Amino acid sequence: MTVFAVRPEDLHNTLATTLGERVQKIEVALGEVTVHVSADHYLSVMQTLRDTPGCQFEQLIDLAGVDYSTYGDMGTEGSRFGVTVHLLSVSLNQRVRVKVTCPDDDLPLVASVNDLWNSANWYEREAFDLFGIVFEGHNDLRRILTDYGFIGHPFRKDFPLSGHVEMRYDAERQRVIYEPVSIEPREITPRIIREEHYGGLN
Fold first, then answer.
1. pLDDT value at 32 more than 60
2. Residue 70 pLDDT grade (very low, low, confident, very high; cuts 50, 70, 90)
3. Is 136 inside a domain boundary?
4. Residue 90 included in any domain
5. Rounded to an integer, what is the distance from CA 25 to the centroid of its chain?
6. Would residue 34 count as lying in a domain?
7. Are 112 and 136 in contact (CB under 8 A)?
8. What global pTM score does this model have?
9. What is the pLDDT of residues 178-198, one digit of tens each?
């Protein structure tokens, strides 16, 4: 049996009725539905999106951390860190994006949804590792991409391009050692050379 995709406007109305006051806003843009929710209601909303008829988002297909620290340059105010989640309903052929912001910039914290969708496990660990976002209730929240001795969170926009420490194998000590970064920070601006008739262009 073919299940036709739900119109974004119809999904918007379903979500508005189902989620009520627990959401900050629901947007439809470019054929996609985005739900904005506060950290206080995040877990409750996610449970509803999974279990309620008309929603039935059985799969979490992506979860990523976001650092909004430079969005203020464009006139946007608000929390520095957030989490964006993409959910899929296979049975109803519909998708939704959920955005939640962390209320405390110094300790970015939101609830874990790993107990709702086990696919969130590594995604949440990645967001913790790269952005420093803590997922409360995650039973194995540890780094997943960086080394055990890594300092900081490399996807934060204030993280130095050269990092804090460098790692190398020391043949004399016969082990890996960490040292302060020896690279001098510098800005490299690429030189652009435009040749006449390059690529067949006039």
1. yes
2. confident
3. yes
4. yes
5. 19
6. yes
7. yes
8. 0.81
9. 888 777 766 666 666 666 766
Burial 89-107 (b: 16+ CB within 10 A, else e): beebebbbbbbbbbeeeee
- Could you give the angle at which helices 42-51 and 8-19 cross, rounded to 10 degrees? 120
Q: What is d(CA 125, CA 53) in angstroms, rounded to the nearest whole number?
A: 30
83 Cβ contact list (under 8 Å, min separation 6): 63, 64, 65, 66, 99, 100, 102, 110, 127, 133
Among left, alpha and beta (phi > 0; psi -120 to 50; other), residue 74 is alpha
Q: Which domain holds residue 92?
A: 8-145
Token readout for 66 is 């976001």
| Domains identified in the chain, total number | 1
pLDDT at 120: 97
Distances in whole angstroms, Cα of residue 34 to Cα of each of 12, 14, 15, 88, 131:
9, 13, 10, 13, 22
pLDDT at position 127: 98
The domain that contains 88 carries what CATH number? Answer: 3.30.460.80
